[in-house]
Amino acid sequence: MRTPWHGSHPPRRPAVAVLSVLALALTALAVPAAHAEGGTPPGGTLDSGTKSLTWQSPVYEKGTVDSPDKCPQPAQDPDGAVCARFDLTVKPPAGQWDDNPEGGVPVSVQWATPTDDFDLYVYDDAGKQVASSAGTADPEATVIPKASGTYHVVVVPYDVHHNSFTGTAYLPEPTDAGNLTSFGGKGGTYDIAAGTLKARVDFLADDTMRLRAAPDGTFTDPPGSRMIQSRPEPQRNTNSFDAGAYYGIRSKDVVLRVYKKPLRFALYKGDNRTVIWSEADPLRWTSGGMRQSLTRGVDEQFFGGGEQNGSFSHRDQVMNVGNNTNWNEGGWNNSQPFYISSAGYGVFRNTFTPGAYDFGPRVRTGQQERRLDAYYFTGDVKSVIGKYTSLVGKPFMPPVYGLEPGDSDCYLHNANRGERHTLDALKVADGYTRNQMPLGWMLVNDGYGCGYENLAETGKGLQAHDAQLGLWTQDGLDKLAEQVKAGQRVAKLDVAWVGNGYGFALNACDQAKAGIEDNSDARGFVWLPVSWSGAQRCGVLWSGDQKLSWDYLRWQIPTYAGATLSGIAYNTGDVGSIFGHDPKMYTRDLQWKAFLPAIMTMDGWAKDLTTGKAADQQPWLDGEPYASINRKYLQLKERLIPYMYGLSKDATKTGVGAVRPLSLEYPDDPNTLGANAKYEFLAGPDFLVAPVYSDTGVRNGIYLPKGTWTDYWTGRTYQGPTTIDGYAAPLDTLPLFVKGGSIVPMWPKGTTSWQSRDKGELDYDIYPQPGSSSYTLYEDDGVTRQFAKGASATQRVRVTSAGRASVIDVGAAVGSYQGKPASRAYRFTVHTKAAPGIVALGGTRLQRYGSAAGLAAAGTGWFFDPATGVTEVKTPSRSTAHGFAVEIA
């Protein structure tokens, strides 16, 4: 919002839907809204005889309202003095939408003075909003999908000064590529023509190919684009050949076929027999769109698209790319023009325009622009994610406190919660400390008229609670230098940063991260709710404002797992939502989100779903049993930070984040794409999380893929593939399973902060299986950027098992960083099922104790718990410069 808000949290401003609308011959001119009679809005019809319409608005001396909900009914606003209206009837010719690049009727409003702002909304005859564009672009433009019938266009004069607009709508008419008219090239670059259509192919390193096509023969880059961080070098060792029906271009591992009549493209493996993808029809374009049509494989699956709310697998679905600020299931506010196919390729469309990707029997992918600019990557899903993120930016390395819970509220003059001041945030931080619940950072304002005071004092007070200061900004990036010097280490952006195109949001993310890093030695830690390709390199993507329900818990599960398939390593939603509070739902939501790398509670705007009274959302406020359960999972999240931190480091190299759909690790198992697996996920390769997302104490349909899986709470093992029904999951139990062979590093029990943790102890939770497995621990100082210069250490742990005997080999910690412990003790929890006869450290037998309390008092030795089948081994402090072995037999 650009209007200062006080009191309740305002709605988010929708992002821009950027659409290039070319000049059209006006075949009809509607009556201006000012001349409407009897409260009936002006209107017009698009059909086979009338292909385009324009209409003119009244002149508005100033802004009127800020939302279409505040527009009066037409009868009460007959001259459009408050909101402009236009009734658009669409009678599409037969087959109009069967294969149309724009997929519907483009509607736009362009105003006389571009600095002003009119917002555009479209409703069907039943009153349902079907399209919108409400940012600061000129024109505001959107598309009515597969339009047919009567629609009501409402334009809100949001921020205007003696201004008017011209509205336009048209039926897009398609043109197809014709026969090949020229072909030639060398050195990895080839130029192709089919009449006026020009195409260019660039073969690039790492099995990457770029294909561009322009009906007017002019190749362009997206204006102001900073998406691409590192362009691959041309792969010059290519050659071409004439195969009669097509020209072939052979590169390192692939062959591109360029068919002649008509011009079509197909990509094959190096044998020129195995198809990777093949165009089913020639390229098709209209005045404002272009699509590519591909043949779909029998079992071909499709993933990606950035954050797609409620989905991670898109076969037989239309995947939208753009922004509709639908924060709920079906929305796509953090989408990306990128998808992956299980056929062994991925595609990134180098664009800032919205698009629709139809993965039906005939795959049709289109953007709302009259150009094609696509990068094609070949390989399996993980390698494609790596190549894509090498292009637009690998996920950033967060500070360690970024993996701890965050808290957000407005603490200055908050009408929702009474008069408050910024320093009151310290009382909330004290609540986390008092209740032994981890807190890594706090946002102490909301950027909507809720500013701050006593910033440096607030920052110091938070640091005393082992928490970092964060600030929310609507438009204040120019203040970052001053704020960072006063202690700010976290920045949260909002939808106002979308501005004139998605590039603005991406640039703001880069700027916010740099603003922290240029004015401190810290790592930039940025959150944003609207983004585009490349945002993974600079921020945590956050799915926006939702109201609490069991459905809210459900649809977020595939959302965040699916985002990983676009190289988004940090994607999350508010714990318990922002609007609405229920103790049981909040606790269930917190349980599974403890296995997301980044989480945050959003306070100050919720009301209890039962009483309707205001309800803050800190995890202890609902009392028992909720507070104890929430503490249990927050402390478990804290203990697992060494594991999550290692996954973060891996993501900076591979592009693959921690939260994964099962299909990513088990691509050959079709059940991982089934209905049951949709609502569970992997946290790294080792943990399988099956959240409870309904009001029940029993979880059905838990799918476990191939391998041995151990119930984290009971120690019971299962052999996959199998499906578990009737799993007992009372409120304090999150169904959680660990894969056989896992070695999980953990901080000691009771840890509530990375700063106050016992650095003199490191724990490993071990699940032996026949053979050997290994894990490499990654450590650095956690907060500065010295890791990028090599200031870090690794420690390799290998577990070898045969029969009932296991050997744990712990290597030396290789490398150095500020604060690296010279020595530490180790605690191993080994899931052995049966009690061992001997446990030895470096060949010396350790003493057995009859109880956990006895072992804790002794500090060194071992204990077997028959209830869980876990052998606990504790070592004395040992130098990290030397390795050692523990034998369990």
UniProtKB/TrEMBL annotation:
Pfam families: DUF5110, Gal_mutarotas_2, Glyco_hydro_31_2nd, Glyco_hydro_31_3rd. Keywords: Glycosidase, Hydrolase, Signal. Residues 1-36 form the signal peptide. Residues 658-744 form the Glycosyl hydrolase family 31 C-terminal domain. Residues 199-358 form the Glycoside hydrolase family 31 N-terminal domain. Residues 496-646 form the Glycoside hydrolase family 31 TIM barrel domain. InterPro entries: DUF5110, Gal_mutarotase_sf_dom, GH, Glyco_hydro_31_C, Glyco_hydro_31_N_dom, Glyco_hydro_31_TIM, Glyco_hydro_b, Glycosyl_Hydrolase_31. Residues 214-239 are annotated as: Disordered. SUPFAM superfamilies: (Trans)glycosidases (SSF51445), Galactose mutarotase-like (SSF74650), Glycosyl hydrolase domain (SSF51011). This is Galactose mutarotase-like protein. Residues 761-832 form the DUF5110 domain. Gene3D superfamilies: 2.60.120.380, Glycosidases, glycosyl hydrolase (family 31), Golgi alpha-mannosidase II. Belongs to the glycosyl hydrolase 31 family.
